[in-house]
Amino acid sequence: MALDLTALTQACFEFALATTSVEDSIDHMLARTKVDTYVAAARQHEHFLLERGRDPNLLTYVVRYLTQAHAIPPLSGDLVWFNAAIDVMVDLACPNSLLDRTHEQLIHEMELGFEEARRDYQV
Fold first, then answer.
1. CB-based contact 123:82 (threshold 8 Å)
2. Taking every pair of C-alpha atoms in the chain, what is the biggest distance, in angstroms?
3. Containing H/E element for 13?
4. Going by C-beta distance under 8 Å and a sequence separation of 6 or more, which residues neighbour residue 5?
């Protein structure tokens, strides 16, 4: 399975744009300057996903989720936050470590949240 780099780049542009304060031509230019940095950060997980037999386009889905659910102007250019958010999302979708039963309640609560999200999809 191959990463659709065009889709990832577009998702990163939308994230960069969503984290700028005002949508005008200057902000579009500023957002474009950040896109390559965001794409490179996301692609750091590509090899891991491929090794695990997972779809690397998960990275695009993660960036789209972050854009819709968390992108706000104070995050503009905050690569530390962006990297940490992608790390967590990739680890949730493709666990990199073994968990023991002490995490069962967390996993259960996450499953409930996923079920709720599916019921509440915005059309």
1. no
2. 51
3. helix 5-18
4. 39
pLDDT digits (tens, 9 = 90+) for 36-95: 999 999 999 999 999 999 999 999 999 999 999 998 887 877 899 999 999 999 999 998
Determine the residue type at 68.
Q
Tokens 């259960």, located at residue = 108
Per mean pLDDT, which of 31-35, 97-101, 105-109 is the most reliable? 105-109
Amino acid at 109: E
Whether the model pTM is above 0.90: no
- Residue (of 13, 18, 15) closest to 73 by Cα position: 18
Query: What would the DSSP string read from start to end of 45-84?
Result: THHHHHHTT--TTHHHHHHHHHHHHT--GGGTT-HHHHHH
